[in-house]
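Continuing the series of single-chain predictions for the mutant panel. This is the parent chain; the variants come on the following pages.
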Amino acid sequence: MHNHHQHHHHHGGPASSGAIDLEQFKQSADATTDSGAGIPAVVQITGENLDAEVVKRSEEVPVVVLIGAEGAPDYTRMKSDLSELAEASGLNWILGLVDAHSAMEVAQAFGVQALPTLVAVAGGGPIGQAEGEQTGEALSQWITAVLDATKGRLRGLPPGTRMAGDVGEVEQPAPPVSTDPRLEQAEDLLNDGDFDAAVSVYDEILKSEPANTELKAARTNVAFLARAQKMDRAVDHVSVSNQDPTDVAAALNAADQLMLIGESNGSLDRLVSTLPKVFGKDRDTVRDRLLEMLQMFEPSDPAALDARRRMASALF
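Parent structure:
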């Protein structure tokens, strides 16, 4: 056990990527769970609190660590974008900030090669990282991928934990049952079998209620029905997809056809196994459809958990 005053004597080079070299930071302290004051969504990380606030905390919720040079424009901008996302997430994940100069030993423990670097930590270890400056849009997508990859796999914060400075519980409120008059319009369209038009109405409502998960799930189901309605059922889309595993349109059709005949596991599998075979926009398309399809499953469904895990390793 290293004495904590010896932080400046570095032990060897940076840790190999994929593992944080935390031996020198092990502490008996648990993550701060002062439920009286609540816990902050954004935490400054130092050698002293790394074990508690990153490693132990990441067994409860994912911790996204931004490592950069305090004062550098790229770090400042990413810090501001991420802090906003973290504050808005209601403790679904925690942002850890590391100033690479004042906490050099922490940057070294993460094996950082470039600044700024983002590292996602879950279950006590890193599950992915991104180097260099990222746009706000990319950061938001990256966080979504981290949350999707860890969904249902961490134990969550202790019940009743509040966000520091926040009043009341962080218990996720039940999704607002929308009272939007357009919902009735959408239902009429559904009853007429006009699924595409119903999807457009859902999209409009979701613009004003982006957090309404029930609405999102409904939209997903209707979008699936709309695609199924147009699908040429005389074609064996699975065979077509097997002939060219990199054909994204064929893979999406095959996944829909499998879902239609009740082969939901096969449907997810088709999308997940296409991910590593395609790149760029194609990969984004497959990932987005996979995330959409996953909304049709219970989060604890073993097939969904397996698909999320495999998706994470394909994306990271």
